[in-house]
Write a structure and sequence with these properties.
- The protein is an alpha+beta fold.
- β4 and β5 form a beta hairpin.
- The strands form two sheets. The protein has a five-stranded antiparallel beta sheet with strand order 3-2-1-4-5. Strands 7-6-8 form a three-stranded antiparallel beta sheet.
- It contains seven helices and eight strands; from the N terminus they run βββββαααβββαααα.
- It has two domains: 76 residues, OB fold (Dihydrolipoamide Acetyltransferase, E2P) (Beta Barrel), CATH 2.40.50; 157 residues, de novo design (two linked rop proteins).
- The chain is elongated, with a radius of gyration of 20 Å.
- The protein binds zinc ion.
- Zinc ion (ZN) binds next to loops.
Length: 245
């Protein structure tokens, strides 16, 4: 059976003499693995279109045993992601998160849109990469079913106080009068940023503005919350942090 879908290359493993086993995120069928025969050869038609982060409309052939990719109408290569090791390693972390969390055998449009937008802004290089990382992590936590309860204080319903307190373990918010001992003290601006990441429409998600001095706390919270949501650590994250620090 042959099928077409928009797809992006998340991971490549060289196999055999010159084949690639590629992990894709596809719009229609989530994460799939497919072989690209002879794609390691420079003259092969899939050589350029099956590099890391390549995005386009791919044609796949599937039989009982394997899936193969046969053609690609390439839309975007995200070449800007290769500009330095820090950018590249953050993009690889995004890919690893998608491989870990996106569904199999079902549509993954929301994951696809989040990833494409994040890679676009990362490649463009105009937005703070740490902010992009925080946005990706917290939005992804929400998509996979761990949306934090950020509407109001869990105890009294207060909408905003300066500061507020966020419990990373439970995803619950508390006001300054209902402080909970395990919660992290957050300036209201950080809570407002988290609300934006969780509640905004995707087309407004990356318009997020925050004082640069508040980014480290936002980054720290979003990372911890994501790790808690997914329940594991990521090698690509350790690598990115080693580079970025
Ligand atoms: Zn309260």
């Amino acid at each position: 059976m042959t099928f077409n879908t928009d797809a992006i290359v998340l991971k490549i493993v060289k196999t055999g003499e010159s084949d690639r086993l590629i992990t894709f995120l596809t719009r229609d069928r989530g994460v799939i693995k497919a072989f690209a025969g002879a794609a390691e050869r420079p003259k092969n038609k899939l050589h350029m279109s099956t590099n890391l982060f390549c995005y386009g409309n791919f044609t796949f052939y599937e039989n009982a045993k394997t899936v193969k990719t046969e053609e690609c109408d390439l839309t975007e290569t995200f070449f800007g992601l290769q500009k330095d090791i820090e950018t590249l390693s953050l993009a690889q972390y995004f890919n690893e998160l998608i491989i870990e969390t996106a569904p199999r055998e079902t549509q993954a449009n929301e994951y696809m849109r989040l990833l494409l937008n994040s890679l676009y802004f990362l490649a463009e290089g105009k937005k703070n990469p740490r902010l992009l990382k925080a946005v990706f992590e917290l939005r992804l936590s929400s998509i996979i079913g761990y949306m934090p309860s950020l509407v109001a204080c869990k105890s009294c319903g207060a909408f905003e106080t300066e500061p507020m307190y966020f419990n990373i373990e439970t995803g619950e918010l508390f006001c300054r009068d209902c402080i909970q001992k395990d919660a992290v003290c957050c300036p209201l601006e950080v809570i407002a940023a988290m609300r934006h990441i969780v509640f905004s429409e995707l087309n407004k998600l990356f318009a997020l503005q925050i004082n640069v001095g508040k980014i480290p706390l936002l980054t720290q919270i979003c990372e911890k919350y994501l790790i808690m949501s997914v329940g594991k650590n990521f090698k690509t994250l350790d690598f990115y942090k080693a580079i970025a620090n």
